[in-house]
Write a structure and sequence with these properties.
Blueprint: H1 2-6, H2 31-44, E1 51-55, H3 62-71, E2 75-80, H4 83-91, E3 97-100, H5 106-113, E4 118-123, H6 127-134, E5 137-145, H7 165-169, E6 173-176, H8 186-198
Parallel strand pairs: 1-2, 1-4, 2-3, 4-5, 5-6
Length: about 200
């Protein structure tokens, strides 16, 4: 544990089991919650009234991103790959809208749900889903690159996205990050996440 405690990008903390169930330290009050927090707030920089689209919205990070965006006064649209996941996105994580990218026309739904364009795209997947979202960006959009699930195991690798021209047209910014970059701010972030969880505002 001493090697782990001193490794770059890692930190140990004592879990207060009276503040929340101990299992939350592996999720909403752990690495995935911190990833959602810093990715959305530091890179996405949400403003009330923004439209936020999240891919893999039912995933461990995506479900928290949507809730944090709602707390920030944003309109939220989640993208997932199964009807049950879409149901969870709407009912458990309180997104305003959800899309099953396997059975629905993603572009058509985005046009309907994001009439002013997408202000923040929290990208967990890359690939064709992200290419479709790029076509609906608002002027000055921010794209948070958290993961690229669709790209990891491609043989041979497909190469970069074919939709980057939309970043030029819409003067959008795309930025990737690692949650370990923010280790010096974990304590403050966890205090906020813990408070929202205790208040019942974060599931």
């Amino acid at each position: 544990w001493q090697e782990f405690a001193t490794a770059p990008g890692y930190t140990l903390r004592r879990i207060d089991e009276h503040a929340a169930p101990i299992t939350t330290a592996l999720h909403v009050l752990g690495m995935t919650g911190l990833t959602a927090y810093f990715g959305l707030f530091d890179i996405g920089r949400p403003r009330a009234g923004d439209t936020v689209v999240v891919s893999a919205a039912a995933g461990a990070v995506g479900q928290i991103v949507g809730q944090l965006a709602k707390l920030s006064g944003c309109h939220t649209v989640g993208i997932a790959g199964a009807d049950q996941k879409v149901d969870d996105v709407l009912k458990l994580y309180h997104y305003d809208a959800a899309i099953n990218y396997k059975t629905e026309d993603v572009s058509k739904v985005l046009a309907r749900e994001c009439p002013g364009g997408v202000d923040i795209y929290f990208d967990n997947v890359g690939g064709s889903v992200s290419s479709m979202v790029h076509r609906h960006l608002a002027i000055g959009a921010r794209i948070v690159i958290c993961g690229q699930i669709a790209e990891y195991n491609q043989i041979p690798p497909r190469g970069g996205p074919d939709s980057l021209r939309f970043l030029i047209i819409n003067r959008a910014r795309m930025e990737g990050f690692l949650v370990s970059d923010y280790v010096h701010r974990y304590k403050a972030a966890l205090a906020r996440l813990s408070r929202w969880y205790a208040e019942g505002r974060l599931a």
